[in-house]
Amino acid sequence: MTQAQLSAQHLSADWASQMRPQESLTAKAWRRFRKHKLALAGLVVLTVLILACILVPWITRYDPLKTNVDLIREPPSLAHIFGTDELGRDLFVRLCHGGRVSILIGVATMLVSIFLGTTIGAIAGFYGRRVDNVLMRFTDFVLSIPQLFLLLLFAQLLRTTNNPTLSGGPLPIIVIIGLLSWPGAARLVRGQFLSIKAKEFVEAARMSGCTNGRIMLRHILPNAISPIVVAATLRVGQAIITESTLSFLGFGVQPPTPTWGNMLKNAQAQMTYAPWTAIFPGLAIVVTVLALNYIGDGLRDALDPHHVE
Amino acid sequence: MTQYVMRRLLQAIPLLLLISFTVFMLMQLIPGGPMAAYENNPNISAEDLERLREELGLNVPKHIQYINWLSAVLRGDWGTSQITRRPALVEIAEKLPNTIYLSMVSFIIALVISIPIGIISAVRQYSWFDHVMTTFAFIGHSLPVFWMGLIFIIVFHATLKNPFTGGPLLPGGGMYTLGSVPTLGDRLRHLIMPASVLAIYSLTTHIRYMRAGMLDVLHQDYIRTARAKGLRERTMIIRHAVKNAILPLVTIIGLEIPVLLSGTLITETIFSWPGMGRLFFNSIERGDYAVMMGVLMLSATLVIIFGLLTDIVYAALDPRIRFE
């Protein structure tokens, strides 16, 4: 064997041990995500839940809004697997319809909150100094009043406007929760931007004439995206809990539109003799949020660039 | 140190002013305002309304109203509750101790339970105990507080019976049985459910922080040194590791004050606990401006003070941090 052949063989053997077959970043993340069994279970549960919410009109013949005096507070049975409520409406059907609204509010609120948080955090972290100081003091300001107190104040403000588009529907709830829940994301993104902007590739981008906006969007943001994705996943769950709390207290989405929160509003009065009206909507919230939290945990492992395999 | 505290206190003043101004202006946006109760009353004539407006100082521009309100608040005049006709400050001062009582008890329960759990979880990482506790923390983190309260009432009030009297095992709400002289036992029985709900609410976060803090410390060099010089595992954990691992928990406790206040609002409302959170909830439902404003300002002040205290305690506990 010649020297060249030898070294070629040596090289290829070395490469084979070092390199896996070409794998995209998404494929890599997915492979890691699947290793987190609970996250995978969360994903399955969440998918089933969402499918049930979407497909409910084709699964059962019950109407979520139609009342029936003959069926008031029926305990769970084969005909009504989760029982019926104080107006004789099927609880399972209402849960699925409520889930549509609750999950929609969760996702929409997350979008508002993550968008605001990312924008504010990115600007603060990127520009630093004065801008950073002003924006972070503003963040402190939003955080210094307990969130629920402020939410109730805003909700009351909207409720008393007597404007049908502003009071009672999901939209105002999305806006107020979104407007008050961005500080966490802002601090996270600011930290990311602060550390990434000191890297050489950002310097290189700047030297090749990139504008600040382009550096932020095309060079820093993609490198900061993993923790943002994780935070966004967890935020959906938190928003669902916040919505349910507001609706339970009577300041959220108003009946007859069902949400998991306002279904529990009447439950306190009747839970001694119809406990199922309190148990099932709450379980729906817990299962959904738990699934989301595990998915977030799985994503954290899957997207972490420093993850050792 | 004193200089640092003074500077932080001075920084807190503009923040409080900004909060009070914003909240004051927000309240002005609520239609009706302090006059709503009178405007809907047919027995009050237009002139009387005008006179009342004048008396309440509502005929001057908003920013003047704010300054008037601020100077009154600083003099101790927090306005009058529109529901009870008593000074708002008295209303709040009556309810605040009940909130402190409830939150302190639950806070202590939470710490006493979460610190050992967090330590054992970290020391025996990936053991069955760790798995059970991590799962418990995850579930607790996904529970809405109000629903946990409802389930507690269903189980301990509506379902389980007291074996001696045949009545409910635990009372469903209030601080003590109304219409009787409250005994210590009666007070404790009323305290169990709301305090447990609030404790579980903060427990889950505390366990996660304690575990993470402990894991972090256990991988430090000085622990390896302690192990290498032949210290018993137990001594090493208690004497060397826990001391440092508790630091992150201190920060989180300070930062959690707003979360805890939101938690007391929910718990007090569900368990009819006569505290500040329930007072705020009732005042917002009835449009009782003076009380609303008072509670908001008081809680913002508490949040800022606790933030400051946390920083001071943290720096005092961790010699690596020096005041600039």
Can you give keywords for this protein?
heterodimer, A: 309 residues, MetI-like fold, globular, B: mainly alpha, 0% strand, flat
CATH homologous superfamily caption of chain A: MetI-like
The helix content of chain A, as a percent range, equals over 70%
Average predicted confidence as pLDDT of chain B:
84
Structural class of chain A: mainly alpha
Overall pLDDT level of chain A: 83
Number of domains of chain A: 1
SSE order of chain B: HHHHHHHHHHHHHH
Strand composition percent of chain B = under 5%
Q: In oligomeric terms, what are we looking at?
A: heterodimer
Classify the beta-strand content of chain A into a percent band: under 5%
| Biggest contact | A-B, 42 and 47 residues
Termini Cα gap of chain A: 37 Å
Provide the CATH topology of chain A: MetI-like fold
Helix proportion range of chain B: over 70%
Reconstruct the topology from this structure:
The complex is a heterodimer of chains A (309) and B (324).
Chain A: H1 3-18, H2 25-35, H3 37-59, H4 91-127, H5 129-143, H6 147-159, H7 170-180, H8 183-196, H9 200-207, H10 212-248, H11 260-263, H12 267-270, H13 276-303
Helix pairs in contact in A: 2-13, 3-4, 3-13, 4-5, 4-7, 4-8, 4-10, 4-13, 6-7, 8-10, 9-10, 10-13
Chain B: H1 2-29, H2 36-39, H3 46-55, H4 62-74, H5 88-123, H6 128-141, H7 145-159, H8 184-218, H9 221-228, H10 233-245, H11 247-255, H12 257-270, H13 276-286, H14 289-317
Helix pairs in contact in B: 1-14, 5-6, 5-8, 5-14, 6-8, 7-8, 7-12, 8-10, 8-11, 8-12, 9-10, 11-14, 12-13, 13-14
